[in-house]
Amino acid sequence: MSGPEGSIRGMLALNLKRARAQRGLSISELSRRSKIGKATLSQLESGTGNPTIETVFSLSRVLEVPISDLLDAQQPAGLRVVRAKDVEMLSGQGIDLRPLQRIESGQAVFEVYDQQVRAGERRDSPGHVGIEHTVVQAGRLEVTVDGQEVELEAGDYVGFDATLPHSYAAVEGVVRSVLLLQYRSDQRLDPNAPHSLPGEGTPCGD
């Protein structure tokens, strides 16, 4: 992706307004539910904000849409190769994500991410829409889901209801893993929905 419109920032700006309008939420109400400041939301909708993993996952949770509907991941067409150096990194507390692909099959939607948990760090999530699958490629990863803790090594897999509070912690070195998020197709954002609410003329309208 290149240019501001094809960047994570640009795609989020376009899709956040659409998702908010589809849910019938003002910026004030979205701010209240997501605990993200109104000024920050206005910056995100104008394309001037700096989204983090926490921000995007919080918006996904409140708006009840897949992450890729906010980031507008491209669809496959024949052979598709995604080079790590060509994909913009989404960073946050203790973790870095590269969105690689969205796969739609029947009534299911899958998002594939290259996930890295930084050495000695932890990421906590209050939960978000979907089912989460993780396969560890390198390092040792501690996963806690709703108070239940497991430790994974290279080759191990864990899956859980992502609406539950969960956390990832790198026990040994940087942890490399493949993250797969699974959604129902009826949770998809309607691409034909308007970008603004009736009577709302600016991104920061209440």
UniProtKB/TrEMBL annotation:
CDD domains: cupin_XRE_C, HTH_XRE. It comes from the Bacteria. SUPFAM superfamilies: lambda repressor-like DNA-binding domains (SSF47413), RmlC-like cupins (SSF51182). InterPro entries: Cro/C1-type_HTH (IPR001387), Cupin_2 (IPR013096), Lambda_DNA-bd_dom_sf (IPR010982), RmlC-like_jellyroll (IPR014710), RmlC_Cupin_sf (IPR011051), TransReg_Diox_bact_type (IPR050807). It holds the Pfam family Cupin_2. Keywords: DNA-binding. Residues 16-70 form the HTH cro/C1-type domain. PANTHER family: HTH-TYPE TRANSCRIPTIONAL REGULATOR, METHYLPHOSPHONATE SYNTHASE. This is Helix-turn-helix transcriptional regulator. It comes from Streptomyces smyrnaeus.
